[in-house]
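Good morning C.,

I know you're traveling, so I'll keep this short. The sequence:
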Amino acid sequence: MKFLTSAAIALSVAVPAVARDVVAEDNHGITVAVMQGNGAALERIGRSNATARFAARAGYHRTRGEIAKSNRWADTCIADAAVVADKTQGVMYLCRSLRAGNRLLEGDIAGWAADMQNVRALYQRHVAPSLRAGEEVRSITVPSFESFSRWPRSGTLEAPAPAGTRLPLSTEAGVPVVRGKIRGGLDGKLRDIDTDFIIDTGVTRSHISRKAAQAMGLRVTDGFATDNSRPGQSVAIGLADPVDVHLGDLHFSNVAFTVTDRIEFIIIGLDLLYRLGPLVLKQDELELLQAIPADTCRQPLAATSALWGGQYSLRLPMRIGESDELVLFDTGADVPLEASGVNLATYPQASLVQQHRLTMHGLQPVRYAEATAPVTFNGHTATLQTQVTDQPANVFPIAWQVGFGLRDSYDYYVDVAGARGCLAPRAAR
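The tokens, ready to paste straight into the viewer:
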């Protein structure tokens, strides 16, 4: 399979003069389809007779949150005689990447690290030669996968989470915050630390700052990942030694928090929410559910991600104006609806709002125009306040995001493992 360098603007990949981080796009379009949650394209490729159908089917089930099914197709692909015999090893690269990413999503860090060493070998031999001079896929070339080959499974829930369990939330900061504890750790230290956790459905992995890790006496292993979403501002991501997390009666063991230098908050991301199953975030509480009610959430979410499990995000299908969009479901942002990647040159400069926001890259200046947008989602039509920004878009040329700014009118349902969820008008119930 031939690999081509994808268009940087379409995938929000920086291509600066010195270090050019790119996406190696396969000629079937599977890499991009997984990144953009394009299940229809993957389903079409999956019906073909080409060996790429295995990778497409594994990718299709990834976009639907069906990790077990995705694993079965990836394993079938890796063992297929025609895939093994293919001299280009393009399909093998795709399938091994997807299998590695699924391991990471399931908390199997050691398995992911071992698989990614195979992916890196395939990349160096078969993919890198097709790139232009100075280009590389830094998510493969930069991490030190060998450093994580003995890591324990992360974020195991010690007992099943019973439906009806409720945790009080504070929303004074504009985002859902739950009080809990960080305890113990594989290093044998007797920690018992009260802390606030932001419940953030827009973050792939749970996170602490390097400063917090140091204060807790946690060793940080660097080289876990890198964030290249902002041009020229790569962020190194480490992994803290595992600790236990207690949220009321819910106990997670061996939680491996990602670590950066810039984000000061302690965050619970999709990796731990995955373990909790269906839940709803209301103004004042998080409640665990038996299932997401079919009459409350009418459409499945779409999952977008890199092949190897990074940037895993849940997206709500919305019709915004005349366009169908997949909108990032992000309770960690105190915004109603936001569009990034918009050129603000035609907007009256006096009307633009200047702000600072905390991002992966620290406190960053942001400017935006205020607008309204007619939207239809989950069988409901509304006009939402919208912020239009020229910040770099992620995944799509124009990237939409719905935050926790609608909490006064909507409850936030989500089942990470089942890739289901929605915003449900409170008054309608």
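Safe travels,
E.
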